[in-house]
Write a structure and sequence with these properties.
By secondary structure, the chain is an alpha/beta fold. It has 2 domains: about 190 residues, Glycogen Phosphorylase B (Rossmann fold); about 180 residues, Glycogen Phosphorylase B (Rossmann fold), CATH 3.40.50. Helix 4 links the parallel strand 4 and strand 5.
């Protein structure tokens, strides 16, 4: 009697530009830790030694750090990164290289092609040409993105919006498949516990339970539009003196935002909580969640707010309407008054608030769960449509 042959595992290598903790890093973490150990041998390559590396190594995933790979443009470092990736691919011989983020996508696709990798997958989490840049710069970046897609065998877009933004480019037909992000339910801190831990009672007047608390989980980056949410609080200050805003996150705009808070005399209304590990577990602290992005490919935090049953106000940009649909309030970007009006609507209409909460919760559970994201990604790896 013949003994069954052992099925050889496929080696998959995820590559991402930065090892901090944002949406793309969470995506890599979820995939790297959820793929079957019987079917895949997983490694991750990331720039730097940030939280992503710490979290992956804590659960036994091998991580290689490339100090030369960074978000800022530096031709010498780009060449060094490409060379290091090429050597790594030639040495480890991965069956699949899965590239994430713009820089890692472009450099990794070139290196993987030169190394003869048979299956190159690129996930487009967003397009850098949506950022505030000059026309020539945007055109050049669009060309680089187009090249990345052409060099990759398959490209995943995290939303229909991301796919549509490049669908007009030559030779894009059939090269991009949409796989929405997904997430499992998670444990939440109680309202009082979360507010105490975030320092709401210590930094803002009104106490833990008295204040109407608007919340954001957002990098302090220009594309996130945080100043417009602060403008909304300023507009509502007289009408709702107990209204507070708590922003979880750090970034390059912190100093500018701190100056805005002082200039608008909002020190007792706006609290910058800084980076908070596992921030989603604090969502019950908030009465309303706001996402004020100027550009957003998808928005993991919207799924988190839906699972936490917190009503959402979000800008109608990028992939946000695909998540929210009619289960939240969508407002124009760069418009603090529209955010203020939406906050007022939710504060004055409890039944509407509850209706939107239940709609978004059901939508997230049914459409944006991690199991579905993993299943569709595996179909891409197996070349199924």
């Amino acid at each position: 009697m013949e003994t069954p042959k052992e099925v050889s595992k496929k080696k998959i290598m995820f590559v991402i530009t930065k090892s901090n903790w944002g949406g793309a890093q969470r995506y890599v973490y979820d995939l790297a830790t959820s793929l079957s150990k019987e079917e895949f041998d997983v490694e991750v390559v990331a720039g730097g030694n940030g939280i992503l590396k710490e979290k992956l190594e804590a659960v036994g995933v091998v991580v290689t750090s490339l100090d030369s790979m960074q978000r800022d443009v530096d031709i010498k470092k780009e060449l060094t990164s490409t060379k290091e990736l090429f050597k790594l691919f030639r040495k480890t011989k991965p069956d699949i290289v899965h590239l994430n983020s713009s820089k890692a996508g472009g450099l990794g696709a070139v290196a993987a092609r030169l190394a003869g990798v048979k299956e190159i997958v690129f996930t487009a989490h967003a397009w850098a040409f949506n950022e505030n840049r000059g026309t020539m710069s945007k055109a050049f970046i669009a060309f680089l993105h187009w090249t990345t897609v052409l060099l990759s065998h398959r490209t995943i877009a995290v939303s229909d919006s991301v796919k549509e933004q490049v669908s007009h480019m030559p030779f894009m037909n059939g090269r991009i498949e949409v796989v929405h992000l997904g997430m499992d339910a998670f444990e939440l801190k109680s309202r009082e516990e979360a507010r105490t831990a975030l320092g709401i009672d210590g930094h803002l007047s009104g106490g833990r339970e008295d204040a109407h608390l608007i919340g954001m989980i957002s990098e302090l980056h220009p594309v996130k539009g945080v100043p417009y949410a602060i403008d909304a609080i300023a507009l509502l200050r007289e009408e709702y003196p107990d209204l507070k805003l708590c922003i979880i996150g750090e970034g390059q705009q912190r100093e500018m935002i701190e100056k805005q808070i002082v200039k608008r005399r909002l020190e007792s209304q706006v609290h910058l909580a800084g980076f908070v590990d596992d921030a989603k577990t604090y969502l019950k602290a908030f009465d309303i969640f706001v996402l004020s992005s100027l550009s957003e490919a998808f928005g993991y935090t919207l799924i988190e707010a839906g699972l936490a049953k917190v009503p959402v106000i979000a800008t109608s940009v990028g992939g946000i309407p695909e998540v929210i649909d009619e289960a939240g309030i969508l407002v124009p970007s760069k418009n603090g008054r529209a955010i203020a009006d939406a906050i007022r609507t939710l504060l004055t209409n409890q039944s509407e608030k509850e209706r939107l909460v239940e709609l978004l919760h059901a939508r997230v559970l049914g459409t944006f769960n991690k199991a579905e994201m993993i299943r569709k990604t595996l179909d891409v790896y197996r070349n199924k449509r």
